[in-house]
What we know:
Blueprint: H1 16-21, H2 27-30, E1 40-47, H3 51-55, H4 57-69, E2 80-85, E3 91-96, E4 100-107, E5 112-119, H5 122-136, E6 140-147
Helix pairs in contact: 4-5
Amino acid sequence: MPEGGLPMALATPLLQKDIQNSPTDSSNLLNSPVSKGFGTHLLVEMWHAPFSSLADAESVSSILQYTVSHLQMDSMEETRVNTFQFDPYGVSATATSSVLHILMHTWPEKGYAAVDIFARNQADAFNALERIKFKLNPKDLHVMELARGQLLNMEDT
Length: 157
């Protein structure tokens, strides 16, 4: 813990004024507008996915385009997909719009993909996950869900 006994998560500049007013009780921060409405963040690990789906940037780009296409129905906004091809294989990729952010890293030789999905709400996040899962078809999937803005109630952060 930093000086003063406060967990690191409480020492952000945005929250500093509230912390000084109530250094021992963070419950008022958890229910304040400061910590609400940041969206849902999924940390995803996919194992035993096909090498061919994970190995090249074109394949991963196609998967991300498919994933975000359902969120563009009400918007004229274009989602940006960027990829980086590793040599001889493996990809880092992002898909970014105002309502969804996806970051994917692949290790095709291990059949593994690490995916972060950050969305405006839980439904959009899990819809994106289902679309990625449909395209990658991993045999094993592990997901951790974070409601952003809520780390204040976790000890030792």
